[in-house]
Write a structure and sequence with these properties.
Blueprint lengths: L22 H5 L5 E5 L5 E5 L9 H5 L12 E7 L2 H6 L5 H11 L3 E10 L2 E9 L22 H8 L5 E5 L1 H10 L7 E6 L7 H15 L2 E6 L11 E7 L2 E7 L5 H7 L22 E5 L3 H4 L18 E5 L2 H9 L4 E5 L2 H5 L14 H12 L1 H24 L2 H10 L1
Length: 409
């Protein structure tokens, strides 16, 4: 099994050219392509040369870097008026507002679900047609979904003439549009402002390390929990000695979370992502409007505005006429205010350039390949010990002296 076809063409020249969307596996007429995890826990297509007929349909189909719109037409700060939907969301609930409209009007919604099954995370795109299932698609999942293996279910739904809202990373949306080009009039898309994605197997090895450390079984994993307000604090639910318990997680307490936010554990293609610009693949782009309090203070409740920073503030980029139509359909479900896209770009650098990494990434994956996730943990705790030592030493130095030292440096 490898990534080369019989005719000598390659699915990708190197790993930075493959986003792992799985579209090539779906279009293969001989089912010769399967998605497999590599030794870094990241998924890639592999070809069974016994089945491959060298037709190169997979190569011709590859949609990575394609299906981009022109620059955003207009941008907004926005928030859902439904408090329950907003609380369940990582940001301010734009996706559930849009999804609710589609579901109530006979459409379907395809988004990412994270479920814990026997102590392992199952992260994948699923299609829902029932509003009661919508909460399973809400919230951030900072890991790549296992592939869009519900293509056939989606195809059957599109054949009925009904509409679908698809949410995912820009590269996943590009794949989705290419697969169902025939039904483009029925497809509406929302891409997220994506940092980059670690592999699912890598994430599950982290989950296993937590379970082994606590001698527990994790039953739920929330990357960003609104119980403590809008921010980056998450929550793990688990069972230990037949009792339910919870543990808060943050970049200061979780190796996976810390290295994710530092950009050190993404798949190779994320560091040369062609969608990290204002030419997006989705009809709408949604994300957090980080820095709203500083860059748009007039919008905040403390200054007489409409937005509460504790509840979250989202940003929306409207990238197409379809995007305008969607926003018009949910205008009574949102509060919104037009903002200069340049303000949104200040902290959301993923809209300007791809993620970068340091030499630490090589060390992390070298340890992971040799010693599993416990090797990654060792690196993390070594870094944390150094940081704590620096903080302690800094606390012993009087502030005036510290300022003079900084000035000299």
């Amino acid at each position: 099994m490898n990534n080369i076809t019989k005719s000598g063409s390659a699915l990708y020249k190197d790993k930075s050219k493959c986003c792992g969307c799985g579209g090539c596996a779906f279009v293969c007429p001989k089912n010769a392509i399967v998605m497999k995890f590599d030794d870094c826990g990241v998924i890639y297509p592999h070809i069974d040369l016994e089945k491959c007929i060298g037709c190169n349909i997979c190569v011709a189909f590859c949609s990575f870097g394609k299906n981009r719109n022109d620059a955003a037409l207009v941008s907004y700060a926005a928030s859902n008026v439904d408090g329950k939907q907003k609380f369940k969301s990582s940001s301010a609930g734009i996706f559930p507002a849009l999804a609710t409209y589609f579901l109530r009007n006979g459409g379907a919604v395809v988004g990412v679900s994270l479920k814990m099954i026997n102590g392992k995370a199952d992260v994948r795109h699923v299609m829902v047609i029932d509003e009661n299932e919508l909460p399973t698609l809400q919230g951030s999942k900072y890991v790549q979904s296992a592939g869009l293996d519900n293509y056939r279910e989606v195809l059957e739904f599109l054949k009925t003439g009904k509409k679908i809202l698809f949410s995912g990373t820009p590269c996943q949306i590009s794949c989705f549009k290419s697969l169902f080009k025939k039904y483009s009039d029925q497809i509406y898309t929302v891409d997220i402002i994506c940092h980059g994605v670690p592999g699912l197997e890598f994430f599950n090895d982290y989950i296993l390390s937590v379970e082994n450390k606590k001698n527990c079984e994790i039953t739920d994993f929330i990357f960003r929990d609104k119980k403590n307000g809008w921010g980056l604090q998450g929550n793990i639910s688990y069972i230990v000695k037949n009792k339910k318990a919870n543990k808060s997680i943050s970049p200061e307490s979780s190796s996976y979370y810390r290295f994710f936010l530092d950009g050190e554990t993404y798949r190779d293609s994320c560091y040369s992502c062609p969608y990290t610009c204002l030419q997006r693949s989705g009809d709408l782009t949604i994300g957090d409007y980080w820095g709203a309090q500083k860059f748009s203070p007039e919008l905040m409740v403390e200054n007489g505005g409409m937005f509460n920073s504790r509840e979250g503030v989202s940003c929306i980029l409207c990238n197409s006429q379809k995007g305008k139509m969607m926003l018009d359909c949910v205008k009574y479900s949102l509060i919104s205010a037009e903002v200069d896209v340049e303000k949104i770009l200040i902290i959301n650098k993923q809209l300007r350039e791809p993620a970068t990494h340091t030499g630490l990434r090589d060390k992390i994956f070298k340890e992971y390949k040799s010693n599993g996730y416990k090797g990654v943990e060792r690196i993390y705790f070594k870094i944390r010990r150094k940081e704590k030592a620096k903080k302690f030493i800094k606390s012993l130095i009087p502030e005036p002296m510290l300022k003079r030292l900084k000035k000299k440096l």
